[in-house]
Amino acid sequence: MLDETASPLPRVAVCLAAYNGMRWLGEQLDSILAQQGVDIAVFVSVDQSTDGTEEWIDTRAKEDKRIVVLPHGERFGGAARNFFRLLREVDFSNFDYVSFADQDDIWFPVKLMHAHDVLQQTRADAYSSNFIAFWSSGRKVLIKKSQPQRAWDFLFEAAGPGCTYVMKITLVKAIQTVLERHWNNAQEIGFHDWFIYAFARANGFKWVIDDYASLLYRQHGNNQIGANSGWRALVYRGRKVLDGWGLKQTMLIAHLVGLDEHPFVKHWSNGGRLGFLWLALQANQCRRRVRDKVLFALSCGAMFVVGARIR
Fold first, then answer.
1. What is the distance between the terminal CA atoms of the chain, rounded to a whole angstrom?
2. DSSP at 10
3. What is the Cα–Cα distance from 270 to 248, expressed in whole angstroms?
4. How far is CA 212 from each of CA 138, 209, 289, rounded to the nearest angstrom?
5. What does the alpha-carbon distance between residue 145 and residue 129 come to, in Å, rounded to a whole number?
6. Distance between CA 182 and CA 144 in Å, rounded?
7. Which terminus of the chain, N or C, has fewer Cβ atoms within 10 Å?
8. Tens digit of pLDDT for each residue in 232-249?
9. How many C-beta atoms lie closer than 10 Å to residue 135's C-beta?
């Protein structure tokens, strides 16, 4: 665990959520522990697994005091609830930053130090970045998330995958407070990274999205979301839009971050079918990437046509 004596290095708590992670967890954990220029501790929460993940991580924790394992036995059923458990139960008092880690990626050695430098230079409260998606075939693709932030993008998308996030402790403490107050509602949130980005932006915290690609983001059949590229991701998102799930999540997040009564939200949430048409016209302020703006407008238009509801 982190040495509580004074350290000249930035102190980073890495929250790692795992589930049946034996295939790739070792490589990922090695890349985290090899981070340069930071004083690090890794807090691990394992969703009840069947492949020996719990036993394996317990053994690694005995070998390396920087690894702290939360009690086993809980069933979360998704990464968001697992990460929220970490945010709720870990004491971050002795840290400068909190970062998230998936179980199957590979971090570049200066990932955390680079984030620290950018946060210092920009005086931002939170950091995220581009990343490189990679497949077992050897294919690699740069995924760009650093398009200019828009007025309302945070209500409709994350800043990128949570594994690129590095947050100052002041923001993390604020997130912990809102999770404690709204714990039951928070269990309905599908994506922790979306909620956290929304909370930060809605509450005046400065967020910087960096051009730097900080990690290799593994693509495989068990990804909960993946890199959001390709026709399968497009079909998945299309279904979520038309069945109202996406906007229901937006409404839940707007409530939790204190914006459910804002005129922008009420204009479309209470506007019925015409509300969807109005929202389509706001697409430029609701997504960052040009392609996503077009798809957003088309999706809202489709909901207007079919008379979809926010269920």
1. 44
2. P
3. 13
4. 21, 9, 17
5. 7
6. 32
7. C
8. 555 555 555 545 788 899
9. 12
